[in-house]
Specification:
Keywords: Disulfide bond, Glycoprotein, Glycosyltransferase, Golgi apparatus, Manganese, Membrane, Metal-binding, Signal-anchor, Transferase, Transmembrane, Transmembrane helix
Order of helices and strands: HHEEHEHEEEEEHHEEEEEEEHHEEH
CATH topology of the domain at 119-291 and 378-453: Spore Coat Polysaccharide Biosynthesis Protein SpsA, Chain A
Distance between the termini: 134 Å
Function: Responsible for the synthesis of complex-type N-linked oligosaccharides in many glycoproteins as well as the carbohydrate moieties of glycolipids.
Catalytic activity: N-acetyl-D-glucosamine + UDP-alpha-D-galactose = beta-D-galactosyl-(1->4)-N-acetyl-D-glucosamine + UDP + H(+)
Structural class: alpha+beta
Largest sheet: 8 strands, mixed
Helix content: 25-40%
Number of strands: 17
Strand content: 15-25%
CATH class of the domain at 119-291 and 378-453: Alpha Beta
InterPro entries: Galactosyl_T, Galactosyl_T_C, Galactosyl_T_N, Nucleotide-diphossugar_trans
Subcellular location: Golgi apparatus membrane
CATH superfamily of the domain at 119-291 and 378-453: Spore Coat Polysaccharide Biosynthesis Protein SpsA, Chain A
């Protein structure tokens, strides 16, 4: 009985071992055929790729299955031994316009000036920037071409930090740009606005495709890369909140630090003034130019010489050979009553009604007045939380003392803007030097008139 049980047990064990062997064999065969199929697929794809490379008319190398053109039917087929041409053009997908809001922006930035900086480091950090400080995004078509102009003299230390921070910011913003340092030659009184006029002219000589111009001081660094350096429908003031002003706009008409105008906007105001020697005033003059664009004489006839007190603010003021009559014409008729008249352009007109009752002292003659469009352009600004800037602290430069005549000049902007600007710009080009990270333009711009130089 015991032997019988032992035999049955051995038989069952043998059957189990046999089943395990069969199962093992099946698994091995499955794996074998799977690997074999993979090898066949690999070699078939390899051969197909080689065939497409060796055959110049293969469809597999063409996008979207486009049908190739074989030329005339009588053309001979290429010999198998013929090497394919190495300069065959491959169809590439055209670049799309860069997005309005670039996806790679990081927002608020930490700006500090304690670590040492060198041009060698700036160059290592920006290998994609071309000679002369130029860059264009490789993966999209930029919407504008921007020239960044920096008025400059003896600020090499500041320039290193400016380039260190701005090159990466501009690249993330997908800007096609060139950086121009407008260096004033000599040691005469500094003239920021005139240097910017020179920069505008020289940048266009370098590349006539520039359609946007950013005017930046060398000591101002943006603290947020969402403050996009581009031009807008209206003139742009970027430096809304500087640390030296407690990150607030110092006053509503402030246009200093960093600003931007399109080519057409810049030409419309005749550029910037050339007569602001020393520190201060030119940015307020620019703001006034943007807000008061005088058109040519139109022959508009308005009531006469504005004698005596008319309305609430009526008075006569002599401004550089012209008369300013305030409020006597009423706010609705002539834009808050501020209209300019040139002397001698009076004419006798009758039958046009009586003297306005609210101005009993009006001369019964009429003036031929220019059509003045106040608020011709409105300055736009980024959100105060985005338009923040840090300033590199420094002492005021020698030969850049406050301009004692700046307040008088600011009052006369509308009188002087047609004759003082790009139309009257004179300078001597000393040197143009294309550095790895920027283009340096050294110019001689003259000196202030003797009475101004004496203060």
């Amino acid at each position: 009985m015991t032997r019988l049980l032992l035999g049955v047990t051995l038989e069952r064990i043998c059957k189990a071992v046999l089943l395990l062997c069969l199962l093992h064999f099946v698994i091995i065969m499955i794996l074998y055929f799977d690997v074999y199929a993979q090898h066949l697929d690999f070699f078939s794809r390899f051969n197909a790729r080689n065939a497409s490379r060796s055959h110049p008319f293969s469809n597999s190398s063409r996008p979207n299955g486009t049908v190739p053109s074989y030329g005339p039917a009588s053309a001979e087929a290429p010999s198998p031994s013929t090497k394919p041409s190495t300069n065959q053009s491959t169809t590439e997908k055209p670049l799309q316009p860069c997005q309005e809001t670039p996806p790679g922006l990081v927002g608020r930035l930490l700006i500090e000036f304690s670590s040492p900086m060198s041009m060698e480091r700036v160059q290592r950090e920006n290998p994609d920037v071309r000679q002369g400080g130029k860059y264009s995004p490789p993966d999209c078509l930029p919407r504008q071409k921007v020239a960044i102009l920096i008025p400059f003299r003896h600020r090499e230390h500041h320039l290193k930090y400016w380039l260190h921070y701005l090159h990466p910011i501009l690249r993330r913003q997908k800007v096609a740009y060139g950086i121009y340092i407008i260096n004033q030659f000599g040691e005469d009184t500094f003239n920021r606005a005139k240097l910017l006029n020179v920069g505008f002219m020289e940048a266009l000589k370098d590349d006539e495709e520039y359609d946007c111009f950013i005017f930046s001081d060398v000591d101002l660094i943006p603290m947020d890369d969402r403050n996009l350096y581009r031009c807008y429908e209206q003139p742009r003031h970027f430096a809304v909140g500087m640390d030296k002003f407690g990150f607030r706009l110092p006053y509503a008409g402030y246009f200093g630090g960093v600003s931007g105008l399109s080519k057409s906007q810049f030409l419309k105001i005749n550029g910037f003034p050339n007569e602001y020697w020393g520190w201060g005033g030119e940015d307020d003059d620019i703001f006034n130019r943007l807000n008061a664009i005088a058109s040519p004489w139109t022959g508009v006839a308005v009531w006469g010489h504005c004698h005596g007190a008319c309305g609430t603010l009526g008075h006569d003021t002599d401004l550089g050979g012209a008369w300013l009559c305030s409020s006597w014409l009423g706010t609705a008729l002539f834009n808050q009553g501020q209209v300019y008249f040139a002397r001698g352009l009076t004419l006798e007109v009758s039958g046009l009604g009586s003297v306005p009752p609210w101005c009993p002292h009006t001369d019964p003659t009429l003036l031929l007045a220019p059509s003045i469009s106040l608020n011709g352009m409105k300055v736009s600004r980024p959100d105060i939380r985005i338009g923040r800037y840090r300033m590199i602290k420094h002492e005021r430069d020698k030969h850049n003392e406050p301009n004692p005549q700046r307040f008088t000049k600011i009052q006369n902007t509308k009188m002087t803007m047609k004759r003082d600007g790009i139309s009257s710009l004179q300078y001597r080009l000393v040197e143009i030097s294309r550095q790895p990270m920027y283009t340096n333009i050294t110019v001689e711009i003259g000196r202030p008139p003797p009475r101004l130089a004496r203060g």
